[in-house]
Specification:
Rna Polymerase Sigma Factor, Chain: A, transcription regulation, Arc Repressor Mutant, subunit A, 185 residues, RNA_pol_sigma70_r4_t2, mainly alpha, 10 helices, elongated, sigma factor, 2 domains, transcription
């Protein structure tokens, strides 16, 4: 019996021992594989860890058909591709915002940009994270809810509260500028 079958059998008998053997057998090779794809060992470790957690939390070992090794490498590859796509989307959004906010033809004052970012940084952590994901990363409310493990109503409520806070924190013209730029995203 190969190591892959042994891991799956152990998972079915004792999940913790199965996970330990899975980790010991595949963690380092998967990190190397993901690092080749991402070029960053720290990000690679995050992707591999997420794949392991998904494998265990969603009990993928119960329905796995075929090779465990093939499944893990495929899951890590897709995790890396998703990471790269999301990073690229986030960087593109940041570039667009930066260009628009600093475009002298638009007449946006760099002090206003600083004030907007300071106001957004003073939001509570969860609200700031949701505002960032929706406005800066361009994610839909349902995507944010799924990623954070909260309901879509929570995302809507937190967005409303974030915008309400920013409206109070900023002058009317500054808030309208913020809405203009966020609305274009």
């Amino acid at each position: 019996m190969g190591n892959n079958e042994e891991i799956l059998l152990l998972f079915r008998k004792n999940e913790q021992q199965g996970f330990r053997l899975l980790y010991a057998s595949f963690y380092d090779p998967l990190i190397l594989f993901a690092t080749q794809l991402l070029g960053d060992a720290e990000e690679a470790a995050d992707v591999v860890q997420e794949c392991f957690v998904d494998f265990w939390a969603n009990r993928r070992f119960n329905s796995l058909r075929g090779s465990l090794e093939n499944y893990l490498y495929s899951a890590v590859k897709h995790g890396c591709l998703n990471y790269l796509r999301n990073t690229r989307r986030r960087e593109d959004k940041h570039d667009v915002i930066r260009e628009e906010l600093y475009d002298e033809e638009e007449g946006v004052d760099p002090e206003l940009v600083e004030k907007l970012y300071r106001s957004m940084e003073s939001l509570p952590e969860e609200r700031r994270r949701i505002l960032h994901m929706v406005c800066m990363e361009g994610m839909k409310y349902q995507e944010v809810a799924d990623q954070l493990g909260v309901s879509i109503n929570t995302v809507k409520t937190q967005m409303g509260r974030s915008l309400q806070f920013l409206r109070k924190a900023l002058k009317t013209d500054d808030y309208l500028t913020l809405l203009f730029f966020l609305g274009k995203k």
